[in-house]
Amino acid sequence: MAKEIAIPWGAWTGGKEATDLEFPDSWDVQVFRMRDAPDITDKATIQRAIRNPIGSPPIKSIAAGKPNAVIAVEDISRPIQCKDICETIIGELNEAGIPDGRITLIGALGAHRPMIRADYIKKVGENVVDRINVENHHPYENLVNIGTSKKGTPIFINKTYHDAAVKIAVGTVAPHPLAGFGGGAKVILPGICGIDTLEANHKAGLRGIGIGLGFITDLRKDIEDVCSKAGLDFSVNVVTTSRRGIAGVHAGHFIDAHRKAVEQALQVYHTDIPKLPPKDRFSAGFFNMYPEDTELSQASGKGTNAFIGAQSLFQRKAAVIIMTAAPEGRGFHSLQGETGGRLYQNFGDNILYKAVMESHPLYIYSQNVSKADVHHFFPERTTLHKEFNRLVEGVENIVGPSPKVALFPASIQLF
Asked: Residue 404's Cα: distance from chain center in Å?
């Protein structure tokens, strides 16, 4: 006999975006869900948030008398669908006197892959794609050097963005292992900065300096310094639900509105975990990467960081299972994810990874990646399983036939 547990699965793939996991009845499986929130489904609520900003004038006041505008929007690797948000922003710009023909949307890719029309339709809707100019950011070209940050980060910024009279950004405030949270100024850096800026910003973080998950880090402060120099007139910050819905919209000044979003995020993503004596701790942890499960490149670092955040629940040699739909396979990250990339490094060679993860058996569960994909990011000892029943057998061989298992259904959970 087996017991089925439904989890969300396969962001942006359409349909129900869910799957069932079959665990043996002999397993003690405990599901740790985030606090979550209802999905906001009415456009009027989104419009009110954008028209009543935090710490800044409304878009119509900012854009009045200006010749053009640019909207930087996070890419498809992030969970939120931005159709209603972008349509509202465009409407406000139109009312301020900026027509569709003088509005450009830039995919804030950072070092991720370019997006195609189908991606943009998923992200912002076909109406937006057909109404205004849509461009991908390029981290190697179309850049302007505007100096350095207080920490000495060289600032190369997208020229289309730099030259625009009105600058707006839209991003999700999801937990991030380097900057604490996404959204706000992070749409600008790394979103629309050059590769030299990305390298300088990430380099210290990869050594564990100035980083952290779920709070305002020193790396985030450097990002905000860069953003202040590049300029950002209006920031839309979205808190997501576990279903990729919108829990809240916080618009206005790129720091003030972001901090309000962080306040909500800390509540929505909060996950209660007990304090357990060693004898009662779990022998295996299953970490699902939805809603950030488009590719293995995204899931890799976030999966290990999820375990690190919840490690007090686990035995010293507990098995760690990272689960990702990864419909795009290995994925792409020109700074950290590609052979020859300036900061590419297998996790097995990372000192922070070794300090926490080296004693734990590590598994990847995904139907859409290969062993070569897995070992591109993870050490050779990492085991890939494409069939869940085979994964179950592999875990039992390591931790025993009746393990105590903790299951985390979402990558955005905070502990």
From this structure: 29
Angle between helices 83-95 and 43-51 (to 10 degrees): 50
Query: C-alpha distances in angstroms, 214 versus 96, 183, 240, 320?
Result: 37, 12, 14, 21
Which pTM value belongs to this model?
Answer: 0.96
Tokens of 283: 């022998």
Distance CA 119, CA 267 (A): 30
CB 132 within 8 A of CB 104: yes
Q: How many domains does the chain have?
A: 2
pLDDT digits (tens, 9 = 90+) for 94-106: 999 999 999 999 9
For position 53, which CATH number holds? 3.40.50.11440
Exposed / middle / buried, residue 280 (Cβ in 10 Å: 0-12, 13-18, 19+)? exposed
Taking the C-alpha atoms of residue 269 and residue 239, their distance in angstroms, rounded to an integer, is 9
Q: Where are the beta strands (DSSP E) in 324-366?
A: 362-365
State the helix-helix crossing angle for 218-230 and 195-206, rounded to 10 degrees: 160
**Tens of pLDDT along 289-299?**
999 999 999 98
In the predicted structure, residue 210 carries a pLDDT above the cut 80: no
- Cβ–Cβ under 8 Å, residues 199 and 342: yes
Tokens 């995020």 belong to 265
Beta bridge partners of 29: 405
- Interval 263-276 mean pLDDT: 97
Of 268, 285, 319, which closes a domain?
268
Same domain, 292 and 341: yes
310 with 389, same domain: the answer is: yes
